[in-house]
Design brief:
By secondary structure, the chain is of the alpha/beta class. The chain contains five helices and nine strands, in the order H-E-H-E-H-H-E-E-E-E-E-E-H-E. Strands 2-7-1-8-9 form a five-stranded mixed sheet, with helices on one face. A two-stranded antiparallel sheet has the order 3-6. The protein has a two-stranded antiparallel ribbon with strand order 4-5.
């Protein structure tokens, strides 16, 4: 998948000044690893959707009932999408879920290749920006093993009871094939 994605980006860069890649999928499906490897090989700007997690202060019952509502899509749109559309610098401002605080903001000139990874990266509100889209999947057993290793027993329970059901509801709305690169 790595070499295939790199080739797809390089092919598009032959005819486009900039290529934006979206890598979506459920927890522990390999999105971050794939994105980091490809970003390094391509010299791409890498953006993580986890940095746009919805802060607790903005979580209302209506927002939590919304498919894809647990991502701060308004902030992502303002700080990333609108700036990409205007060919301007990106405002990267990570939200740290563990500290429940925003990290220091920084302006970044985007590279010719931009990779946005994480669940909700192909949210319908901003899917139009992508030249290449990919939705990764993994089987439940492997997902559970990876999450247990990464998050511990308590974290795994939180994913199984809260985050995975929300991700699955969102991913089921995408109507996109899994583990297949879609280039536009």
């Amino acid at each position: 998948m790595i070499s295939e994605l790199i080739r797809a980006v390089e092919a598009q860069l032959e005819t486009k000044p900039r290529v934006i890649v979206g890598i979506d999928g459920g927890a522990a499906s390999g999105k971050t690893t794939l994105a980091a490897t490809c970003s390094e090989a391509l010299g791409a700007t890498l953006i993580h959707m986890d940095d746009y997690f919805l802060p607790p202060a903005l979580r209302t019952p209506a927002r939590e009932a919304e498919i894809g509502g647990n991502v701060h899509y308004e902030r992502f749109y303002d700080e990333i999408v609108a700036r990409l559309e205007a060919n301007g610098p990106l405002l990267l401002r990570r939200y740290d879920c563990h500290l429940q605080a925003y990290q220091e903001a920084r302006l970044v000139e985007p590279a010719k290749a931009i990779i946005i990874e994480g669940c909700y990266s192909l949210h319908p509100r901003f899917r139009h920006i992508y030249d290449i889209m990919l939705v990764l999947s993994t089987d439940v057993r492997l997902q559970r093993e990876r999450l247990l290793k990464r998050e511990g027993e308590k974290g795994l329970k939180a994913f199984e009871t809260r985050w995975i059901p929300l991700e699955n509801a969102y991913l089921n709305t995408l109507s996109m094939p899994r583990d297949k690169i879609a280039a536009y």
